[in-house]
Amino acid sequence: MATAKKPRLSPTNISLAGEVARDVQLDAILLRKAQVTSDVDLEAAANHLDVSQQHRSSYTFDGERSRIAVTVALRLQLTDSESRGPVVLSVSAEYRLLYSVPAGKTYRPEALKYFGELNGLVNIWPYWRELIHTVAARVGLGSITLPVYRAVPKPVRAGKRSKQAPS
Known about the structure:
four-stranded antiparallel sheet; disordered C terminus; alpha+beta
């Protein structure tokens, strides 16, 4: 009796990131840069704000390949949706996350790419949320809480390799 072959599932961004995530230890989260621009008019404080966010991640190894450094750059802009006016608040930040790698471990480039993109963002997200919450209050917008970040599994096509993660 012949046994049916199981179809081979395409890897996802999450499964590839997991190849690295299961081995590493997060050692440090460092805020490298931050910039805030605010044009809040307290007399006509915006009640309806449109939110625009972008992020970009990349990774590098230190000289000994015993540490992965992931850089995550984020930007958020709030605009008044009613007046279609200028940006009410713009916040950008760059974080550097340092992960130790067990001695002798090596990883596929695509696994490192998705690790930097996904784990970097997942690990930094609480710090980004706190920064936005604090800055919004300080410029007079009151309390703004960003939603929880949820990684979405996406199939990865073979041959798609890059050291720089897409934004």
